[in-house]
Every structure is written in C-alpha cells, then in structure tokens.
UniProtKB/TrEMBL annotation:
Keywords: Cell membrane, Membrane, Transmembrane, Transmembrane helix, Transport. Belongs to the ABC-2 integral membrane protein family. The chain crosses the membrane at residues 20-40, 178-202, 229-253, 259-279, 291-310, 346-366. PROSITE patterns: ABC_TM2 (PS51012). Residues 140-371 form the ABC transmembrane type-2 domain. It is found in: Cell membrane. It comes from the Bacteria. GO terms for cellular component: plasma membrane. One of its GO terms (molecular function) is ABC-type transporter activity. This is ABC-2 type transport system permease protein. Its main location: membrane. The keyword Transport applies. Gene3D superfamilies: abc type-2 transporter like domain.
Amino acid sequence: MRTIRFLLEKEFRQIFRNRAILLMIIVMPTIQLIILPLAANYEVKNINLSVVDHDHSGYAQKLISKVTASGYFKLTGYNVSFKEGMKLIEADEADLILEIPQDFERNLVREDQQQLFIAVNAINGVKANLGGAYLGSIIRDFNKEIRSELLPISRFNGAAGIELTSSNRYNPFMQYKFFMVPGIMAILVTMVGGFLSALNIVKEKEFGTIEQINVTPIRKHHFILGKLIPFWALGNVVFTIGLLVSWLIYGIVPVGNLLVLYFFASVFLLAILGFGLLISTFCDTQQQAMFIMFFFMMIFILMGGLFTPIDSMPEWAKVLSRFNPVSYMIAVMRMVILKGSGFKDILPQLGTMALFALVLNTWAVINYKKRN
C-alpha cells in the first residue's frame, strides 16, 4: 500500500501540474455536452417541398395549406409541371415533390378515390424517409377529413373503425435530448478516460522517466494500479460534471438511483482505463497511441447504439457489439436515467463489464515489460 501511495502522489502531482489535462477533464466535456445534443437532432424540420398542382381546385389548395401549416415543410416551389419541380430537386432547392393530378377534386367527389404522386430526394436517406413519412401522415389525415365531409352522416357513423390511443413511456414528450444526452455522456467519459490512460505510459517512455521506474523494486501490478486509480477518480469527476450539466441545461433528472449509475460507471471506467493502459503498453510514442485509440473510438461510437439501434444492425455487427464496452454503458445510462432500472435490471451488463475490466487490466499488467 505504501508503494501505491507514493505512485498515486506522483501521478496526481503530474496531472495537476499540467493545465492542459485539467482543461481537457473539466472544460472539454462541459462544452461538448452542451453543444453536441443540440447538433445531434433527430427531429427533421424545414423540409423543402415543391408542389406541382395540375388541378388548382379548392381541395388542392386545402391540402397544400394543411401540409405547409404542419411546421415540417417549407414551400419552395409552386410549379405547373413535374419537370420544373425536378429542376428544384436537381438544384438542391427541394427535398420532395408533391404532384396533384388534374381533376383531383372531381375524382374525389364522384369516384371516392384519387392518387397523388410523391417524389423524394433520397440522397439523404434519413431526411427522405422522415419527410416521406410526415407527408404521408398529413395526406392520411386530410383523407379522413374529406371522407367525413363527403360521406353521409348516417353511413359514416355506422362504419366500423379502429381507433388507436398511444402512450409514450419513459419519455412522454418524445424529446430527443432525453435520449441523446445519456449516450453522449457515456461517449465523453470513454474519450477522456481512454485517451488519457492510453497516452500515460507512452509519455513516460518518451520522457525517459520509465527507465527510472523500471530500476526500482516496484512491481508491475503496483505500477498499473498507480496509473489506473488517478484516472479512475478523474473519470468519476467527468461523469459527475456530465450529470450536473444535463440537469442544469436540459433538465434531465435520473429516474433511477444515482448509486446504481455511479457503481456501473466505476466498473466501466476500470474496463476502459484498462483498455487504454493496454494500448499504452504496446506503443512506443504518443502518436501511435492516439491513432490506435482513435481507431477504436470510432468503432465504439458507431457500433455502440448511440445513433442507430444495435438490433437494426447486421448479424455480424450485433456479434461485434457484444465486445464493445461502450454499448453496455450507453444502454445502462438510458435504462437508469430514463427508465429507472435498478441493480437487478443491469446485472447482465454489470457482469459483462466486470469481466472486461478483469481481462483488460490483467492483460495490461502481463504485457507491461519491466526491464532492469
């Protein structure tokens, strides 16, 4: 214990002597957590819509007014031909074309049916899917209104129908920030802990101080623990800052127990710090460590379920995500903060994370070469 105490004293002195690390630990996560949820917005609005109206009837105007009044669409063109509408799409001035055929109102009244044509610019797949879905939903509502006007009251009231009533659990108002902020917090804790630990041992190698440590009777596991514990404590500080920012800026208050969050975050930090230290034992320069850690961070983020659900990934990606510690952290953060899950609910993720921590730190100790 005395050896570890001296090593911890040395590490904390080095950390607090370096102002860049302190800024990285405190200022960077705060700014990122304020800005990133505002940029990572799942709500698609101001979709540019071009209308090709061949009918110019009252129903056509009513449909156009209903679409533009929804708040999702911005009318950028009112054209007389489909060719003119396509020119707006080709010039990137329109995302969708709604073509209203000739005799639109007459066919609705006389034949009780009429087809509309929607052309979607699918270069941006997410915007295309959501824009098409929004427009389809508005047209269905418009169709329901027209049916209530055209059908006789007795016939309309007597027709069988199914009405759905939905209830949004855990996020009643469907606010994307409540979904994104916990995941972004997990990523920031991973980045700070992973990069700092990955650069730590390598920095000792570059400065030559590792040789002075190697000639001492310090054991390998003492050395790794001395590197691990300070950044584990700082990682919990970053996690606390993230919880405070999410509460003060976005009004997110964890539904579950904070002890559950901190306990899992502590085990997760042991795993991700062990991974960083393992990388550090393989590298000889800080540049090597940064590139390797950046490579894995990209995989952790894109295959962690932050932006896209893991269930929608291919089977091989689902298998790889089981070896991604960040995916467990993101899942548990959302479970505890939004759903109020307890220790019993997160036991599978906790057991997996504890196994990650044990394997990665043991591997780091074994791989650290101590030469006298």
